[in-house]
Amino acid sequence: MSTSPRHILLTDEEFLNLADQPGKQELLDGELLTLPPAKHSHTRAAQRFYHALLTQLPESLVYIEGGYQLRSGRWLQPDVSVRWDGQPV
Length: 89
Prior knowledge:
Blueprint: H1 12-16, E1 24-28, E2 31-35, H2 40-54, E3 62-64, E4 68-71, E5 74-76, E6 80-82
Antiparallel strand pairs: 1-2, 1-5, 3-6, 4-5
């Protein structure tokens, strides 16, 4: 008989108090997602995308590895993102 792993859900506060570690941590509907550090080719692609965006947008609006709370229980950290002017940071 096999048992499936239990998913422990975290609150926003618990997520924000996690210790830093290599890689990326995101929270999706309370479930912690842990990703390994990006490979060199992935990092280079993100850098190229970031620099391409800077040819069209002010640097103050373009972020690398910025964290966003979309709603309670949902925190994401895209490789590259653009915030709109006036969006809270």
